[in-house]
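Lab notebook page, bench 4
Experiment: in silico fold of construct C2
Operator: M.H.
Input chain length: 211 residues
Purpose: comparison with the prior construct
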Amino acid sequence: MSPHRNGRSDAAMTSSLPPHIPTSEVLRGLLAEAPAEGVTFGWLLDRLQKRSFGVVLLLLALIGLTPGTSPVVGLLLTIPALQMILARETPAFPRTIMSRRFSTQRLVRMVDRTVPVLRRMETVIRPRWKMPFETTTRVVGLVVLVLAGVFFVPIPLSNVVPAVTIMLIALAYLEEDGVLLAVSLAMAAAVLIATTITVWQSVEAVRSMFF
């Protein structure tokens, strides 16, 4: 087979791939499909499909910025993180969470607040340096699992930096932005190193007080 034919074949395969749809448009599409009587968390995850992990991580990271939520958020983050490591297609939560119903109007309000922010971010965050989807999913899951442990560190405001880092990782994952993902992973490494040093110094300080 000639190299020219190979090149045309690769180009044809690339052009046949579906175009990337921004997350803001995906969320807008949810409103058109939402039943009038209300939606469940399971329904949302089913409609979001491969975006569901990114959206869950983004929501949990936002909640993680709230004071006093660190242990709960850290625990909840381990669920999607472990499933991403296992390369599951969508996250699965206990039935009580999946069947939790809320009004469609609440979904509309949430989307109306979120979409304008996402659209501004999407002018900068866009598909670049694409990696195989399964590999990216496993890497993101592993990093989020390790960062989830930082939420259990009993140091004031220790939840802020890991929460922001997970938000950036989630946005990079949602928009298939390898550049932002690389920056976010470097930031995650810095967070873990700083946390390890801080915890070690705290332990040494306690030891010097009592021994």
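Observations: Strands lie at 39-40, 101-102. Residues 20-210 form one domain.
Next step: discuss at group meeting.
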